[in-house]
Automatic annotation (TrEMBL):
It comes from Clarias magur (Asian catfish). One of its GO terms (biological process) is mitochondrial DNA replication. It comes from the Eukaryota. This is DNA polymerase subunit gamma-2, mitochondrial. The gene is polg2. One of its GO terms (cellular component) is mitochondrion.
Length: 244
């Protein structure tokens, strides 16, 4: 995102604060060791944000984004308390970082980091753009300043795993014979569910009802709503052949 800082200045009228976000594949270094995590891979999907602000308000912006990121994860969760934040210890700070924070998730095997936030000052921006500082300056009120950077990076793969674990719900039900039945249900938040509507006609449905379901399915798909076709997707033959 820092590489796009100069081209973005005119779009933002050189006025602070503003941010640049991006998502893409990243590669872990060969000596990267995270053996306790499930699904470790040298290739991960990462989402990042570079937030440019005045040096006077950089600490407040770090606190703001830490709160916002925690609230974002919790609003989709069945168990919001499994998500938490903590400050990065001084001996764990990245080079050039003044402060840091982490968004954490409590997996069954232990707590892992989903996002890391850094208050980096202006050093990183100055290092990435050589030459006159005048070209880097933005307006902070009536003054021209080189902005400080708040950086956020999130491991999307680990975040998805956290959402899936948090959405698992164990349901117990006692039948008429007092027998206990248990099952595990994936209860995703509607905003995150890949399928928004499920149309299950059942094998005993009439021809008219099946036609209504088929028509409704096509209407949902045409307007971009994810719909699961139920029995219509279980065979290459027509729906009528399921009942012959």
């Amino acid at each position: 995102a820092l590489a796009q800082y100069i081209p973005s200045l005119e779009l933002m009228n050189r006025k602070l604060p503003f941010g640049l976000a991006e998502t893409g594949l990243c590669y872990q270094p060969e000596d990267y060791d995270d053996s306790d995590a499930i699904g470790c891979s040298s290739e991960v999907t990462e989402a990042s944000l570079a937030w440019f602000c005045s040096h006077r308000t950089s600490s407040q912006w770090l606190d703001y984004w830490t709160r916002q990121r925690l609230q974002w994860w919790r609003k989709f969760a069945l168990g919001p308390s499994d998500f938490s934040v903590c400050d990065v210890r001084d001996d764990e700070l990245n080079e050039g970082a003044l402060r840091g924070a982490k968004v954490l998730y409590k997996f069954p095997w232990g707590t892992e980091t989903l996002e890391t936030l850094w208050m980096r000052g202006d050093n990183e921006l100055l290092r990435s753009h050589t030459g006159s500082q005048a070209g880097l300056q933005c307006r902070d009120g009536k003054r021209l300043v080189v902005p400080h950077v708040i950086s956020l990076s999130a491991n999307v793969d680990r975040g998805l795993l956290a959402v899936l674990f948090n959405s698992l719900q164990h349901i117990e039900k006692v039948d008429s014979k007092q027998r206990l039945h248990q099952r595990t249900v994936l209860k995703l938040h509607p905003a995150l569910a890949p399928v928004k509507v499920a149309l299950d006609m059942g094998k005993g449905s009439t021809s008219e009802l099946r036609q209504v379901c088929e028509g409704l399915l096509q209407e949902l798909l045409e307007v971009g709503i994810s719909a699961w076709p139920g029995y219509m997707d279980t065979t290459l033959s027509s729906v009528e052949k399921l009942h012959t």
